[in-house]
Amino acid sequence: MPITSIAYAELPAATQSTLGQLTHAEFGHVPIVQQYQWATPDWSMLLHDDQGQLMAFYNLVLRTVTFDGHPVQLAGLNNVITPPALRGHGYAKQLLLATEPQWWEPLGAQHGLLVCADHMMPYYRKLGWYPVEAALYFSQPDGQHHRFESNVMLRSPSALQVHPAEIDLGGLPW
Ligand SMILES: CC(C)(COP(=O)(O)OP(=O)(O)OC[C@H]1O[C@@H](n2cnc3c(N)ncnc32)[C@H](O)[C@@H]1OP(=O)(O)O)[C@@H](O)C(=O)NCCC(=O)NCCS
Predict the structure, then answer these.
(1) What confidence tens digit (pLDDT) does each residue in 97-132 have?
(2) 116 CA distance to ligand 1 centroid (A)?
């Protein structure tokens, strides 16, 4: 199935709107989503069928963050979504596994990072993600720092895992 890998800003407005609606339907009711301002994605990966129907997508925030004070280039995964009627057919898995190599080259990330609800951890474990105990911080436009009280998972390009004690996203969360 065709996969589109594209800068979020270059997505047609209608596609941005479709992704926004799907995202709002999934996460719009979550209190923390309503409470904070969130990063605009830098990149999007979309899986379509041969007729052009959207089967799954996700967004990436590409950012230099810090792990224990040291700069690290991250691919921040957010909004992995398969439209409800299409779930359970392997579309999200297919999209993630096919596109992850792009995170390291050409997008230049050293690791992937996602913030994850408890019930989704087994899903990402199966896809090669690992949990870290790190304290995760982000900031808001008013400059205030906040701690993100959620599970943090990393994906690394090799079998070598990293386990920082503190991660600072240095900006809006994703
Ligand atoms: C999570 C989501 C993207 C999965 O999409 P999908 O296309 O149905 O997933 P896949 O069919 O690719 O599933 C791949 C594997 O994960 C398993 N899986 C799916 N959802 C799971 C869950 N909640 N917990 C554990 N495993 C799960 C599948 O059984 C499948 O296993 P297999 O490879 O052994 O057969 C989809 O359910 C969704 O859009 N959910 C709402 C949004 C969301 O919560 N996104 C993730 C937040 S970051």
Answers:
(1) 999 999 999 999 999 999 999 999 999 999 999 999
(2) 13
